[in-house]
Structures are given as C-alpha cells and as structure tokens.
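Protein in question kept underneath.
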Amino acid sequence: MTPTYRLTWIVLGTFAKVWFRARAVDAHHVPLTGPVILASNHASFADPPLVGTSVDREISYLARDTLFSKPVLGSYIRRLNAVPVNREGGGGPGLKAILDRLNSGGGIILFPEGTRTHDGKLQPAKSGIGLIVAKSTAPVVPVHIHGSYEAWGRHQALPRPRKVTVRFGAPRDFAELRAELANAEKSRVKAIYQEIANRIMADIAAL
C-alpha cells in the first residue's frame, strides 16, 4: 500500500472496529494480487471503507468525476485509487477507466444495485456490473455487509454505533457466460449481462 492509502486504511479500519465493532468473515477469498471485483450490497455511506479496510490490499473505489477537479480532495482521492465516473455512474469513459484498472491488475469495489437501498433490503441488480464482468477477466468475490443500514443508512445524518459484519464469498469467474458472449446474437448480449448481474446478487444474498 502507498503511504496515503495505508494511513487512511488504518484510520478508517480502526474507526470501523471501535464504532461499528466491524468484523470481516472469510476475507481470505480475496486474492492479495491480481485483478478482482468485489461486488457488494449497498446500504450505507460507510460501505466502501467497510469493505476496503477488511482486505489487506489496495482496492479502487468509484468517485464522481467532478470531485477530481477539487484542488485538495482531487489529489487525495487519486492517492486512494479512486476511479472517475460521471454522475450516472457509468458511460464510455467510466467503463474504460474501470477496465483499465482491472487490466492493470487492480481490485475494485462495485455495487450491483447501483445505489444505496432506501429500506435496508437488497435491491435488484443492474446490468452494468454484468457488462464490466463480461469485458474483463477478473474473478468476482461477492460481499454482503450486514448491519450497515442500521449503522448509517441514507436516512441518517450521522453514523450510529451498531455492529457490522462484512462477509466474503468464494470467487466466481463466469467463464461460460464470457465464452457464450463471443458468438452471441445481439439480442442475447444484454440478457447475458443481466444474467451475470443476477447471479452475483444471488451470491450476495446467500452470504
């Protein structure tokens, strides 16, 4: 880890353990090197650091592209391996930035639901993560964060001291669906993207 990332990892990890009594389960499923996608449910402001501080390697996060133009904040989030995406969370440049990060051997956190849940329940997966998985060779590690909605859901201004558990599942490679895409009819392509997304969401729900 770079010095800035390591310091942030220590500070946020310590806060999570003290305030949220955060505990990681089966984090050994995350490879310490090489490309990997951590696909997590999304219930809280705290989800990205909760996942990132549970693994002993640098992980990239998605951040709104407009933040990178801020003099101090922009420099800081670059040092945290943030990947710029537009307000809608995707688009051509955003997809390319994500794939470039994975192709260079990096890890990245993605949220299949696309946005934080309003009620604490898992939401249907959007096809975007299926597209990213299909166009990369990275394994996908499902992650289910339990308790983060109660700790700091979108309806709360400040975090509460609630217990949080971050569970990691065994990685998937989706090799068969990637292979099918090579010769798939155009009408089938989007369905494959959604199928990948649905399988990932099912894996998350099972944890």
